Amino acid sequence: MRYKAVIFDLFGTLIYKLSLRGYTESLRRIASALSIPPDDFIQLWFATQNERGVGIFQSYEENIRYICDKLGIHAEDARIEQEVQTHFNYTASSVRPRPHAIEVLSNLKSNGYKTGLITDCAASIPKIYKDMPIAPFLDVAIFSCAVGIQKPDPRIYQMAIEQLAVRPEDCLYIGDGDDNELTGALEAGMHPVLIRNPDEDSNDVHHTDWEAGAWQGPAIQSLQEVLNLLK
């Protein structure tokens, strides 16, 4: 067996990315309900993405209160909580596995491979993850908001390696190239592979430090091809 573990990114790899249009519209509804200028709210929301990603804001409520303070706007806590729940429900209902995700993960587990994921995300995602159909097939899940580190910092990859009890050279890393994650995995000693998503509208997803266009390493078009890499 050439590899012993396969580690995945979450969004754009195992599950679909959220629609940027739908996500932005949900933010716009929050702003309108709280009497916040929508454009200002959305701008500050995306500007504080890193703070959500490393857990500085441990909840959407904290993030919204911060934005309100920055804009000099008062919003009732109960109303903020109500709007956050609506946004959380939107996010949870929008999360769905990519084609063949369950099939591939199940195959990996049946054939003795260790599996994990590393994702940059806000604190709401670990709550959603536990109910995702992919969760039972993953041995380790590293969430940036929980560990205070984001990709491509080598330390976040090392956490997954240590928890899986494997060497980095025994790991495949599969990701869509956001957050310079493939370069980070390579620097951590893993074998990174880009997954391209021809069925996804690249104009309708939010990319951060996306390296897919310049990636010169191995690439696949579907999750099923992961199994071919292990033969």
Based on secondary structure, the structural category is alpha/beta
Order of helices and strands: EHHHHHHEHEHHEHEEH
Find the CATH topology of the largest domain.
Answer: Rossmann fold
Terminal-residue CA separation: 8 Å
Number of strands: 6
* Count, helices: 11
Question: How much strand content do the residues show?
Answer: 5-15%
Mean pLDDT across residues: 94
In CATH terms, the superfamily of the largest domain is HAD superfamily/HAD-like
Radius of gyration: 18 Å
In one word, what is the shape? elongated
The percentage helix is 40-55%
Question: How many domain units?
Answer: 2
Corresponding CATH architecture of the largest domain = 3-Layer(aba) Sandwich
Classified by CATH, the class of the largest domain is Alpha Beta
Structure overview:
The longest helix has 18 residues, at about 75-95. The chain has 11 helices and 6 strands. The mean pLDDT is about 95. Helices cover about 45% and strands about 10% of the residues. The chain is elongated and about 60 Å long. A 6-stranded parallel beta sheet has the order 3-2-1-4-5-6, sandwiched between helices. It has helices at about 20-35, 40-45, 50-55, 60-70, 75-95, 100-110, 125-130, 145, 155-165, 180-185, 225-230; strands spanning about 5-10, 115-120, 140-145, 170-175, 190-195, 220. Strand 2 (about 115-120), helix 7 and strand 3 form a beta-alpha-beta unit. The chain is of the alpha/beta class and about 230 residues long.
